[in-house]
Amino acid sequence: MPSLKDLKNRIGSVKNTRKITKAMQMVAAAKLRRAQEAAEAARPYAERMHAVMAGLAGSVKGSDNAPRLLGGTGADKVHLLVVMTAERGLCGGFNANIAKLARQHATKLLAEGKEVKILTVGKKGRDSLRREYGQYFVGHVDFSDVKRLSYDDAQGVARDLLTRFDKDEFDVATIFFSVFQSVISQTPTAKQIIPASYEPEEGEETPSVNYDYEPSETQILADLLPRGIATQLFTALLENAASEQGARMSAMDSATRNAGEMIDKLTIEYNRTRQAAITKELIEIISGAEAL
Amino acid sequence: MADTMQFDLVAPERKLASEEEAIEVMVPGADGDLTVMPGHAPMLTTLRPGRLTLVTRSETHSYAVTGGFAEITPEGVTVLAERSLPAEEFTREVHDKLIAEARRVHEEAHPSVADLTAKLLADMEAMGTHMTL
């Protein structure tokens, strides 16, 4: 049976915890709003890019001289998994879910006899994959100093990927990130970006316009494909940032609620113990008086 | 035929400009400047660093773009520029920084793309004149 003083201390410490989680929840809420705005602002560019690429890709598809970024290397041997997670924890299952999806993919590919390479973006995913797949790591991108994700950051990652691709380090690249659906729901997603697959979205008609190309169609495509990859990475990074804050917000919300419940329980226990002590003292006094 | 068209200038991080009643748009295409007017044949062109001018009924706006591409349809122009800013904000410092960056890329570039980066650098330098610095 804990003493009164112990209980008081515990109540005090849980109250402090609740203050911290509450503050973190509010910070996450503010950051989430900013992350969502950034994702919103990036959407028009990504959408136009997607539409143009879908049209272009459709018109060169099947031709023999399709660029390697679109047609692939012709092999399907080495897979590069780009695992994008957060730099920080305390955000519920966010990092774990992405890592889990990546792990499933890696296991499946290895079982098929493929070669796997892993590039991690964000510290948390690296930490959770290191033990099992540490030997497949080929690189890491650190965003812990980055306050606001900019397109340049995405471009840096894209450039890294393209250099590796040019050196024939891999055949297929897949990115793992979380799509932001709502504060309580983020879906971990895998998306293949090299070779690029630009399927027109559901319900969207492939533009049947015949464009004039300047300089040439192939040159434009060669110019656009790297941009398309950078754009996809940027979109994924922004989605991820919003998801992270959303996940943290709901995780901290339930932490705050749990702390509240715990305080209630501890307070009841504290009052009971106090009451018991008083009753005990009273009995002692009364029986003492009776004995006289 | 409509005498105005839609004009959009979008960067990866935000939408920079949107104008429903553009009369003409001057685009610095990779193979030379071109002016787009309503009803232009559909085309796709890459951009070189330069000045993009938008003319509406009442106003004229200029933007500095450093690359990207433009999608032109009879109904409008969509410019997807990686970096772009209104001409008023394009100062000598910004320009110097861009030149320095282009030069660095050129110096580090693989010989196979040296021609391209040299062109980019030259375009970047010429941009100062276009933007009348």
UniProtKB/TrEMBL annotation, chain B:
Write down the PANTHER family for this protein, in alphabetical order: ATP SYNTHASE DELTA/EPSILON CHAIN, ATP SYNTHASE EPSILON CHAIN, CHLOROPLASTIC
Q: Which InterPro entries match?
A: ATP_synth_F1_dsu/esu, ATP_synth_F1_dsu/esu_N, ATPsynth_dsu/esu_N
Its membrane topology: Peripheral membrane protein
Q: Which gene encodes it?
A: atpC
The family this protein is said to belong to = Belongs to the ATPase epsilon chain family.
Organism (species): Thioclava arctica
Q: Which residues form the signal peptide?
A: none
Sorted alphabetically, the keyword list is: ATP synthesis, Cell membrane, CF(1), Hydrogen ion transport, Ion transport, Membrane, Transport
Q: Where in the cell is it found?
A: Cell membrane; Endomembrane system
Protein name per Swiss-Prot or TrEMBL: ATP synthase epsilon chain
**Binding partners and assembly:** F-type ATPases have 2 components, CF(1) - the catalytic core - and CF(0) - the membrane proton channel. CF(1) has five subunits: alpha(3), beta(3), gamma(1), delta(1), epsilon(1). CF(0) has three main subunits: a, b and c.
Question: Which residues, by range, are in coiled-coil regions?
Answer: none
Highest taxon listed in the record's lineage? Bacteria
